[in-house]
Amino acid sequence: MSVIEMNHLTKQYGKSRGIKNINLSVEEGEIFGFIGPNGAGKSTAIRTLLGLIYPTSGSAAIFGRNCTEHPEIRKELGYLPSEVFYYDNMKVIDLLKYSASFYKKDCTKRIRELAEIMDLDLKKKIDDLSFGNKKKVGIVQGLLHEPKLIILDEPTSGLDPLMQQKFFDLLREENRKGATVFFSSHILSEVQKMCSRVAFIKEGEIIKLEKMSTLQENNYKRINIEGVSTISKEAFDISGVSRLEVNGTAASFIFKGNINTIMQRLSETELRNISIEEPDLEEIFMHYYVKED
């Protein structure tokens, strides 16, 4: 069953960039990555999906229903926006209890569990909190009602590395219990750790939709070589090679394709050393961006 469905979803802001013709479905139980640089259209797509802004054309649905026409569906999801704003003079616990009141269920125990995991002081006033602690409030607020769908827009900004790890562990546990997670980020290592599938967005358009395992499997290689003599750039300026860097007797590049092709080309160069590695997601991501330009 598709928990999220976007069909030709488009939002235009005059001449400014919005999103264009996005087609995307997220299946129940997935942890799905939505990645691209800042300004690529990630937040616009999420806000349009949630019915917070209206699409210019196309449609979006959560659990088969449109959020604008069926606002009650929002009770089934938890949302963490990229920036959180609160009533400053409220205490954290009062804000969270107020949020819980919309769900017609007692969330007191869950609030305290989440606050303990995230090391959040419930007695403090909102305006006394750092940016990172305000982000923790947003995380607890998004998860306190145990939603079936968790939508996160750049969730880790402001969190220190230890707290990020606790947060990822928390998300994995929610996913294990059955929640679907939609995770927007420009930090590729986060997506690599968390997600089973990923969509790349560039300038408001989806440029690639792929399983994480496919992105990382053997058809991509990071190759570093050291030659006995100066290496010619033209020797490796061939189909399948990207991010080629040549510096005297050293060269490095990403290769995608039949490994025998590149091995044959390498055999024509007298080498002193070679390493062939699995590239990380960032290098693969840059491969798509460079290729599209």
Automatic annotation (TrEMBL):
Belongs to the ABC transporter superfamily. Residues 4-228 form the ABC transporter domain. PANTHER family: ABC TRANSPORTER ATP-BINDING PROTEIN, ABC TRANSPORTER ATP-BINDING PROTEIN NATA. Keywords: ATP-binding, Nucleotide-binding, Transport. It comes from Paenibacillus typhae. SUPFAM superfamilies: P-loop containing nucleoside triphosphate hydrolases. One of its GO terms (molecular function) is ATP binding. This is ABC-2 type transport system ATP-binding protein. The lineage of its organism: Bacteria, Bacillati, Bacillota, Bacilli, Bacillales. InterPro entries: AAA+_ATPase (IPR003593), ABC_transporter-like_ATP-bd (IPR003439), ABC_transporter-like_CS (IPR017871), ABC_transporter_ATP-binding (IPR050763), P-loop_NTPase (IPR027417). Pfam families: ABC_tran (PF00005). The keyword ATP-binding applies.
